[in-house]
Amino acid sequence: MRVAEKNGPKAPKDPTKKKPFFFIMQGKEIYGAPAQNGKGIQFIYENDGRLINAARLSGNISDQHMLDLLKTTEGFKEMVHSIGVSVSGRIPDEKVKFVFQMYGKNPGDPSTEITDEFEIDGMERVIELKNVDWTDTDFEPGQIRFEFDKPGIQALADVRFYLNDGFTAPEQPIESMVDFGSKNYKDMIKRSIMQLGNTQRLERIIEKAAQGEDVTVGFIGGSITQGAGAIPIHEKCYPRLFAQSFKEKYCKGGKVELIKAGVGGTPSELGMVRFERDVLREGTKQPDLIVIEFAVNDEGDETKGVCYESLVRKAFSLPWKPAVVLLFAVFSFDWNLQDRLGPVGVQYYLPMVSVMDAVTPQFSLLPEDGRVISKNQFFYDVYHPSNLGHKIMSDCLINLMDEVNANHGYHELEEKQLSKTKPVIGNDFEKVELLDKNEYNKLKKKYKITMLDEGSFDSTDKQLQMVEMDSEITPVPEFPFNWAHDENSKGKGSFTMQLSCSKLLLLFKDSDKPEYGTAEVLVDGKKVMEADPLKVGWTHCNAVIVFNEKAAKSHVIEIRMMKGMEDKKFTILGFGIVE
Asked: Which end of the chain is more exposed for a tag (fewer CB within 10 A), N or C?
């Protein structure tokens, strides 16, 4: 008798996975940073060209029509059939919620959230867009979020876009490992030194470490110095990596204290105002080394370098003579401002390190022709380095220390005397100080503040830009001692202050909330500017120059809500003032 052959399980039909696709994330490190609700969350913003850049770098997309479709929700829906998501981690039974959120055209518009929740087991889940209930006010792809039940979870994520019929995708790149010990890697790092300058102050740091003493390293800059793109941000950011590497290489028993003062989205125009508060703050040791990184944040600086040079001179002139190093980071389109800002370092014989000079020449090469790292590997997104990128930035700074150590005692250039050196761009704000509620009593006499009437700005805003400082993961609020106009205000009328100074900056809070409105600023009764907190579009600290005069004199400053916006919110974070 013939026995019927038993059939085995059939492979499931999966037409979605047969569609062409491209990556927008491949092996991307994510981390559940502590959220206010006690959970962990990783934000990855995709607006303002970030998604297009991800398609270029991670998905190898060069077709301009396909890239243009990613600018809008309608274009995205036309091209993308479904989204494939996989997340892998050390604990596969942990769950993650994936959220792809559209943005509306105007702040506060309702928008679609494409979501799925699953285990972080490395298995791909496919979300078909035909099942999404779209919102009429969707305008553009906005952000991706990975939400965990608890903070501290680290994982790797892949996100693919499967394409509708009629679209094709190029071959997807498979990245090779970065060989940190190779000659090509070492040559790449060596290219980062723009100028050694006078190295005496750096030599003293190395000597101090060799004698077993503690060393304090300080960093001030934008989001890259804050650690954006590093996973987790407090452990893998370049300042933390540098501090650890310096300790391992140069310290003989002493510690390395880290002062990290990077604030996302802010230029040296704000950095110079918060320098004393954030880098020289109470409870920390005097920094032996100060690294200044604003080369990709200062495009919008209204002084075109005066604020930057003012900050550099402020750091260089400190009485204990810390070493000052100028660091020039890079964006994914091979750009920074070192041509504008580099002359400042030349003028004062300061050591300068350019990450752009190190990495960009090799980006266009193939691996067999000497490429060390691809753009997709170096960048986490269009603006920020990945963990590999942060390591390279740290290695560039360590290479500077190695060069100084190797040439110990040889000084081609004498140290500049700041009092005898004219600024190359300008130093109008070298003596700028922060005035807020906390500093008011200390500065009241110096600046002859004879009147300060809060008016309707008598509340305190607690929904502020949050920043991870030093080696901490828990973020702290920026400018908590503020004056806020909101629904809880009990006073009426304008914020009014009379003081004597030569220069004044207004620091105010940006927001993406429609309940915020524009305030107007008057000096001695004359309107000089309007401050619109919705212009930037996210919770952020903004600094603008109200006036810049040669000599100090008494002025009456008035800030009031514009007509018709009295019921809106506005937050004065503080002021920058020069005697």
From this structure: N
Is there a contact between 237 and 385 (Cβ–Cβ < 8 Å)? Answer: no
Bridge partners, residue 527, by sequence: 522
- Dihedral sign for Cα atoms in the order 523, 526, 532, 536: negative
**Entry pTM:** 0.85
Residue-wise pLDDT tens digits, 92-108: 788 999 999 999 988 88
Could you tell me which of 262, 309, 301, 253 has the C-alpha nearest to residue 476?
262
- Is 155 in contact with 89 (CB distance < 8 Å)? yes
From the number of C-beta atoms within 10 Å of its C-beta (0-12, 13-18, 19+), residue 556 rates as: middle
Strand partners, 37: none
> What is d(CA 478, CA 497) in angstroms, rounded to the nearest whole number?
23
CB 71 within 8 A of CB 52: yes
Residue range 376-433, pLDDT digits in tens: 899 988 899 999 999 999 999 999 999 999 988 777 778 888 889 999 999 999 999 9
- Rounded alpha-carbon distances, angstroms, from residue 39 to 13, 31, 42, 150, 227: 37, 11, 10, 4, 20
Pairing of the two strands 215-221 and 289-293: parallel
Omega into 20 within 30° of 0, i.e. cis? no
Distance CA 480, CA 92 (A): 40
